[in-house]
Amino acid sequence: MRKTATNSIKLVLITSVLASCAPPNDKENAESKQRVFMRADSTAAYTEVTGNYTQGHSGGGMGSALLWFMAFRHLGGGFGYANNSLHPQSVAGTNAAKAAAYQAQRGGFGRNAASTTRSSYGS
Amino acid sequence: MQVKKVRIDPQWQSRLESIGYGYHTLDGIPYWIDDYYYEIRNRDADLIYKATNELWQMCLDAVEYIIKNKQYQHFHIPPFIIPHLERSWHNDDPSIYGRFDFSYDAINGKLKMLEFNADTPTSLFETGIVQWYWKNHYFPELTDQFNSIHEQLIKSWTELKPYLRGAILHFSCAKETLEDLTNVEYLRDTALQAGIDTKLIYINDIGWTGSSFVDLEGEPILSIFKLYPWEWMAQEEFAVHIINDPNEAQWIEPSWKMLLSNKAILSILWELFPNHPHLLPAYFDEPAHLKHFVKKPILSREGANIEMYYDKQMIYHTEGEYGEEGYVYQELANLHREDTGFSIIGSWVIGQEACGISFRESDMPITTDKSRFIPHIIRH
Lengths: 123, 380
Hints:
The structure holds two protein chains of two kinds. Chain A is mainly alpha-helical.
């Protein structure tokens, strides 16, 4: 029987979870008002981000911070998951894989979670 | 087994946050308890360890029995997903973890299984990491803890690695829940330490191309851990793609876990192992001979829609949205009670072996998502 943990537990990821969910500070808010040009693929053209990623979120708690976390990922899909702040020309460029990802249907899982507000969907 | 107090660390919240634990307080009420704890003896830990391993084997036997005899009628699993469930069992698709919930009468040594959280158990991070750091803060010497969860996770991922279908193991949970994200990121952390390449994708962002599940970069998903209930996935739009997926993506936990996370398993176990010392009598219909019992929806979470009866009179109940699929009736167990509340023990099985416990405490004898997490030590 192995009951006891060692004294040398190492975590490589987990502390970044909390950090990514910390409320944005004033400095970040100030920066978010600056003009920002982004692309989601190195073969795509840069376009100006037209919205503020921390706004327009209807969820509670850490929502805004998570949106920042997601803002720098590719949010493809014709199912309401593309971030409107990023121009479609800047999503995929000539990268076929990313173009396919953009065209993939999304949102087919998660409906039950979206219809309830709980701190966890585990048990 | 008893509750004991410590002088609270005034910096307890920042101490927890420094290790990445952000949901210690829910709606202004502490979920994590820092200033008292359970002290147990070695023999308590030995009993829980042995019982957990035995019950895990019994659960596997029960799954084999249900599939072999097609005893699905009480589980209310959508018929279209059953071939996938059977295939996942016959393929021995990997399972990483589960958590049994026990009532424990330490004086009489009676340890009874209340249920098995086999599909989406949470509180893994606080059990494996936070309470271990708690012990080292308050009791750096002369104590132990029933907790080898971290090492067992890394060991289990290492053993599973050759059987993963994809070069990348994706990890997924719903958006907007720090608790689930922390649990998933902790699991991903241990998989990384086992040498597995991983990616995080929220469940809503999983894509379907017509021939493959894909992540946000278009990479096919061939092996994926999901902290999202199977009974929900089976209701949702992409469920049909799970069974027709040409890649036959591995979903962890596998779909055969739908049989064990369903409370119908409590009655099946009692049928297969009558009078087993770690089982409570459980039935699909209300039995006349049970005076004190609990009525549980076969699909409910976090103590929702539970009704507790004493002398056939309902004495407690919880609200919720479950119950339409049916109920099981389980004999009422005696929960351990202290001045601080009623407690149950969560016992983790990871990679086929029991490896750690947690205590959850409530003001009433039903454990819910508001129940407090109490750390523990083993005093030598």
